[in-house]
C-alpha cells in the first residue's frame, strides 16, 4: 500500500483530521489547509450545525444557489430556489417559465401519495399455509404491534394504509415479502416507515414462533433478511402539464408555430422509444427537479433512483415527459413519481432550506411535489426548445464562457470584452484561448 491505514479517524478533532490528511496524502502542503478553512463559516455555531449533518466533516462544499422566477403554478406565481452547479439550468428554467406565463402557466394534479416498504424474509413453508396464517392471524398483529409507532402519524392523517403478503418463491427459493403501503403526510417518512418495518420483522418472528400450525422445522427455517423502505414509489405520483393552441406557441427562433410543434413532438417521441436519447432527455428533466430538491433539503439520490426506475417500468427505459399535438392543441406533460417532505430532516435545521421553503410559501409535501414536477417539465421544455431550433451548444457554451475565463484569471473588463466578442459567434474553448492570448498580446 502507498499509505498507512488510520485508526480512530472519527475520534480525531477536525484540525487533527486535516493535519493527518495533509501529511499522509498531500505532502504536508499547508496551502491545502488554507483551502479547507476558507470555506468555514465565520459563525462558529452555524459551522458546527453544518458539520453535524454528516460524519468526519472538515469543511463545507459550496454550490451556487440561484432563483428561477415567473413560475405560474396552479394560479400562484412562484420564484423557485435552485441549488445547482451546471451552467444554463437556472436560465433555461426561467426562460421556460416566462414562455408559459401568458399561456395559463403550469397545471398540476396529485395522482397518489402512497409510499412503500418491505420486510424481506425466507421461510421454508408451503405458500397456502403462510397465506392463511397472514390473513387470519399475522396481519392484525402487525397493525397492533405498530400502534405506538404510528400514533402521531395517524393523528396527522397518515399511517399504514395496507399490508400484503407477496410470494416471490418463483424467483428465489422460499422468498416472501411483507409489502406495506404508507401515507406520511408532510414528511418524507423514511425513519417512520423503517421503524414500522423493523417492528414487522420482530412481530413476524414472534408470531411464527408461538403458532402451533407450524412445525419446529418450519419455524427454524424463518430468516428475516431485512426491513427497509423502497425508494421506488410508482404510486406517489404527480402530473404537471402545459398546453395552448399551436397558433399561440409563438417561438422566436424563426420557424413557424406548426413546425416548432411538429419538431418538438418528434423529439419527445424519439426519447419515448430510444433509450440512448431517453437517458440524456431524463437527465435534463432531473436537472430541474434535483436543483429544487437540494434547495429544499430533500434527498436527490432517492428522487433520481425513483424517477429512473419509473422510466424503465415496462422493461425499456423511456422518456418521463410526453407530448401531443392533436386538434391544433400543443400539450406537454410529465408524470413524476417523487417522495419528498417539508418537515423533519434538514427542513428544520439548514438555514437556506428554511429560506427556500419560506420563499415557496411554506408548501405542503403535495405542493412541493407539484413544484418539483413543474421544475423538471420546464427544464425539459427549455432543452428541447433549444435542440429543435438553435441547437443546445449555443446557449450552453455562452454560459460556459465565464467558467473558461475564470480559469484563465480574466479581469472584469476582459470578461465584458468576451461577451461582446461572442455576441454573434459560437463560443468554443479554442476560440476563447486564441482571443485571450491576442488580447493580452501573447
Give the structure's gist in a few sentences.
It is an enzyme of class 1 (oxidoreductase). This protein has about 450 residues and is α+β, with helices and mostly antiparallel strands.
Which structural class do you get from the secondary structure elements? alpha+beta
Biggest sheet: strands, sense, closure? 4 strands, antiparallel
CATH class of the largest domain: Alpha Beta
At the fold tier of CATH, the topology name of the largest domain is: 3-hydroxy-3-methylglutaryl-coenzyme A Reductase, Chain A, domain 2
Q: How many domains make up the coordinates?
A: 4
- Please state the average pLDDT score: 94
Question: What's the helix-strand series?
Answer: HHHEEHEEHHEEHHEEHHHEEHHHHH
Please count the beta strands (DSSP E, at least 2 residues each): 10
Low-confidence blocks of residues: none
Going across the biggest sheet, name each strand in turn.
3-8-10-9
The second-level CATH architecture of the largest domain is Alpha-Beta Complex
Question: What fraction strand?
Answer: 15-25%
Say which CATH homologous superfamily of the largest domain is assigned: 3-hydroxy-3-methylglutaryl-coenzyme A Reductase, Chain A, domain 2
Question: What this model shows, in words?
Answer:
This protein is of the alpha+beta class. The chain has 4 domains: 9-52, no CATH class; 66-112 and 235-390, 3-hydroxy-3-methylglutaryl-coenzyme A Reductase, Chain A, domain 2 (Alpha-Beta Complex), CATH 3.90.770.10; 115-230, Hydroxymethylglutaryl-CoA reductase, class I/II, NAD/NADP-binding domain (Alpha-Beta Plaits, 2-Layer Sandwich); 395-440, no CATH class. 48% of the residues lie in helices and 18% in strands. The strands form 3 sheets. It has a 4-stranded antiparallel sheet. Helix 4 (89-100) crosses helix 13 (365-387) and helix 10 (275-295) runs antiparallel to helix 11. The longest helix has 23 residues, at 365-387. It starts with 13 loop residues before the first helix and ends with a helix. Keywords: NAD, Oxidoreductase.
Amino acid at each position: 500500500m502507498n499509505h498507512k491505514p488510520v485508526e480512530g479517524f472519527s475520534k480525531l478533532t477536525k484540525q487533527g483530521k486535516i493535519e493527518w490528511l495533509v501529511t499522509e496524502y498531500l505532502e504536508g502542503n499547508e496551502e491545502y489547509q488554507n483551502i479547507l478553512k476558507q470555506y468555514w463559516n465565520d459563525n462558529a455555531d452555524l459551522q458546527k450545525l453544518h458539520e453535524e449533518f454528516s460524519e468526519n466533516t472538515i469543511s463545507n462544499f459550496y454550490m451556487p444557489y440561484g432563483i428561477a422566477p415567473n413560475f405560474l403554478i396552479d394560479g400562484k406565481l412562484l420564484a423557485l430556489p435552485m441549488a445547482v452547479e451546471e451552467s444554463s439550468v437556472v436560465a433555461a428554467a426561467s426562460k421556460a417559465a416566462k414562455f408559459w406565463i401568458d399561456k395559463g402557466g403550469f397545471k398540476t394534479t396529485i395522482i397518489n401519495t402512497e409510499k412503500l416498504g418491505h420486510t424481506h424474509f425466507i421461510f421454508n413453508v408451503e405458500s397456502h399455509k403462510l397465506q392463511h396464517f397472514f390473513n387470519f392471524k399475522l396481519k392484525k398483529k402487525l397493525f397492533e404491534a405498530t400502534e405506538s409507532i404510528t400514533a402521531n402519524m395517524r393523528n396527522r392523517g397518515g399511517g399504514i394504509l395496507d399490508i400484503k403478503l407477496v410470494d416471490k418463491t418463483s424467483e428465489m427459493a422460499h422468498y416472501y415479502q411483507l409489502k406495506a403501503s404508507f401515507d406520511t403526510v408532510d414528511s418524507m417518512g423514511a425513519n417512520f416507515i423503517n421503524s414500522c418495518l423493523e417492528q414487522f420483522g420482530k412481530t413476524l418472528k414472534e408470531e411464527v414462533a408461538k403458532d402451533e400450525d407450524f412445525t419446529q422445522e418450519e419455524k427454524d427455517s424463518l430468516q428475516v433478511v431485512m426491513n427497509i423502505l423502497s425508494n421506488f414509489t410508482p404510486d406517489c405520483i404527480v402530473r404537471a402539464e402545459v398546453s395552448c393552441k399551436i397558433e399561440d406557441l409563438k417561438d422566436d427562433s424563426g420557424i413557424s408555430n406548426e413546425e416548432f410543434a411538429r419538431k418538438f413532438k418528434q423529439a419527445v417521441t424519439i426519447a419515448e422509444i430510444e433509450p440512448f436519447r431517453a437517458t440524456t432527455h431524463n437527465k435534463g428533466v432531473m436537472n430541474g427537479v434535483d436543483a429544487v430538491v437540494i434547495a429544499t433539503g430533500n434527498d436527490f439520490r432517492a428522487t433520481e433512483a425513483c424517477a429512473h426506475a419509473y422510466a424503465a417500468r415496462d422493461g425499456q427505459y423511456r422518456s418521463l415527459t410526453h407530448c401531443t399535438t392533436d386538434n391544433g392543441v400543443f400539450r406537454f406533460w410529465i408524470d413524476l413519481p417523487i417522495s419528498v417532505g417539508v418537515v423533519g430532516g434538514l427542513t428544520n435545521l439548514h438555514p437556506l432550506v428554511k429560506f427556500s421553503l419560506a420563499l415557496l410559501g411554506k408548501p405542503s409535501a403535495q405542493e412541493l411535489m407539484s413544484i418539483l414536477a413543474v421544475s423538471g417539465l420546464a427544464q425539459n421544455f427549455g432543452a428541447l426548445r433549444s435542440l429543435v431550433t438553435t441547437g443546445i451548444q449555443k446557449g450552453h457554451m455562452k454560459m460556459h464562457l465565464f467558467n473558461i475565463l475564470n480559469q484563465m484569471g480574466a479581469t472584469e473588463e476582459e470578461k465584458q470584452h468576451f461577451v461582446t466578442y461572442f455576441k454573434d459567434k459560437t463560443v468554443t474553448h479554442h476560440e476563447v484561448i486564441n482571443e485571450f492570448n491576442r488580447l493580452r498580446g501573447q
